[in-house]
Specification:
Blueprint lengths: L14 H9 L2 H14 L6 E6 L10 E2 L6 E2 L3 H14 L7 E4 L7 H4 L3 H13 L5 E3 L3 H6 L2 H5 L10 H4 L7 H7 L12 E6 L2 E5 L15 H13 L27 H16 L3 E5 L18 H9 L4 E6 L6 E4 L5 E4 L12 E7 L3 E8 L4 E4 L2
Parallel strand pairs: 1-4, 4-5, 7-8, 8-9, 9-11
Antiparallel strand pairs: 1-12, 2-3, 6-7, 10-11, 12-13, 13-14
Helix pairs in contact: 9-11, 11-12
Length: 378
């Protein structure tokens, strides 16, 4: 972890902003490029693709909520097509693709085009003939209810027990973890799978506790309402309660993880520790304040971090939501990687990556706005 002699806030620059700038700086990129060349000599154990915040809509280009950032709604489908073509042409074909959420934009709901837009994007993804694991973001819930998402093409939770089980053991603890969701009456979209021996991916539901991912009379809806009202007094809850700092995260377009889901994650990681597995955790919302603009953080990110840091198996946390992207390696050695959003990527650029997994590291080969990185295991 970097230590600084002065605070950045006094100079109008946050630590997170500086660290994200430093991580993308030329000097660091040059060092990573030199390390990356070593990757060419050994075949990876497996690879996988990553893409975030496609937010496709068949409408003219527009801007974000505050009219400060341009968004390329139709172009996002073209960029997805380019990513698919790249993945299909890889020498080592990706074993799967992680789609980090916000696959279609909320504007589709306004024009009664949610189903059509989703079908368009899913059809494009299907052309790669590569398995896709979908993460749910805020724009999924702008377009569909939780019940609708559970029976949609965006539910990629494995139905075959052999792909989601931790092992052949049938202990009560493993049966609970194997279910892939919490055990109470409010189902969460959380699951895990093992793409190769000694490796595991955990997919989290960042809107399990939220105002948009839950509806009345859900207990978790009322819990979310209590949380946000305790921190945000604005009439429009999509506006942050403060101008700076992590309190900005208490907005309606964010959410959090229920206690049941976090208990499930803790049990899963305990088993992975015992099995000496390497685990990648994915979510739409980032959980480290130095890996993102604080306004994009999960509400209870500190609780998630405490769980991640209590297990040796966690190597990386991947997220979307912040269209600028970000990166930070924390004091426990966990890499927090926030992927740049396709929706705000101009037509001449790209925003996706391929992760090459080795025994001692992962190597991200980025395209366009996504930088190359070498992610050494803790």
């Amino acid at each position: 972890m970097l230590k600084f002699k002065c605070t950045f806030r006094n100079n109008g620059v946050s630590e997170g902003t500086f660290l994200r700038w430093w991580a993308k700086s030329g000097s660091l990129k040059n060092r990573l490029t030199r390390i990356k060349k070593m990757d060419e000599t050994l075949p990876p154990l497996f690879t996988f693709g990553v893409i975030a915040d496609i937010q496709y809509a068949d409408i003219e280009d527009g801007f974000n909520h505050h009219h400060t950032r341009k968004r390329y709604y139709r172009n996002s489908l073209r960029l997805l097509r380019r990513a698919n073509e790249k993945w299909k042409g890889e020498a080592v074909k990706p074993s799967f693709i992680i789609q980090l959420g916000d696959v279609i934009d909320g504007y589709n709901k306004k024009y009664n085009a949610s189903e059509t837009a989703l079908k368009t994007v899913v059809n494009e993804m299907d052309k790669s003939a590569i398995e896709v694991h979908h993460v749910w973001g805020n724009h999924e819930f702008y377009n569909f209810s939780r019940d609708e998402l559970m029976i949609s093409a965006l539910n990629s939770r494995p139905t075959n027990d052999t792909t989601s089980t931790m092992s052949e053991d049938t202990t009560a603890l493993e049966d609970t973890v194997e279910s892939g969701n919490v055990s109470d009456t409010e189902e969460s979209y959380a699951y895990h799978f093992s793409p190769a021996p000694h490796f595991r991916v955990a997919v989290l539901d960042a809107y399990d506790l939220s105002l948009i991912g839950r509806k009345e009379p859900s207990v978790r809806y009322y819990e979310a309402l209590e949380i946000i009202q305790a921190h945000n007094n604005n009439d429009d809850l999509n506006y942050p309660p403060v101008f700076d700092g992590t309190e900005r995260r208490f907005v309606k377009f964010n959410g959090g993880f229920s206690k049941c889901q976090l208990d499930w994650l803790d049990r899963l990681l305990t088993l992975s520790d015992e099995k000496l597995e390497k685990v990648v955790v994915v979510s739409h919302l980032p959980v480290h304040p130095y890996s993102t603009d604080p306004i994009c953080l999960a509400w209870n990110y500190e609780r998630v971090l405490s769980i991640l840091h209590s297990h040796k198996c966690v190597v990386c946390f991947m997220a979307g939501h912040d269209h600028d992207g970000g990166y930070y390696r924390d004091a426990s050695g966990v890499h927090h990687l926030t992927f740049e959003g396709v929706i705000e990527t101009p037509p001449e650029s790209d925003a996706f990556g391929t992760v090459y997994v080795y025994e001692d590291r992962m190597a991200l080969r980025g395209n366009g706005r996504v930088a190359d990185r070498v992610l050494l295991y803790p």
